[in-house]
Design brief:
With 82 residues, the protein is of the alpha+beta class. The chain has one domain. The protein has 2 helices and 3 strands. Strands 1-2-3 form a 3-stranded antiparallel β-sheet, covered by helices on one side. Strand 1 and strand 2 form a beta hairpin. The protein is flat, with a radius of gyration of 15 Å. It starts with a helix and ends with a helix.
Amino acid sequence: MTRHELNFRDLKDAVKNGTAFLLECERVSDGKKVMTVCITYEHPELEHNFYPVAELIDAEGGDPFQEYIPPSDDVVNKARQG
């Protein structure tokens, strides 16, 4: 299982359990404040136990199709099959 697949599995579990949050974080590469999807977990030694798993798309003009080419039908069908 790839890291992306593990993150997605964890995100689905967090949504079911009510431990997924939308939080503003600062991106390390450019210092920009971005909205991220984070999950929280129990850890006795950590004060901040939020783990970012996704960054929300901030598309110019609000249309992500202006910045991304949608996946092909083959890719979609493969994803649906698991």
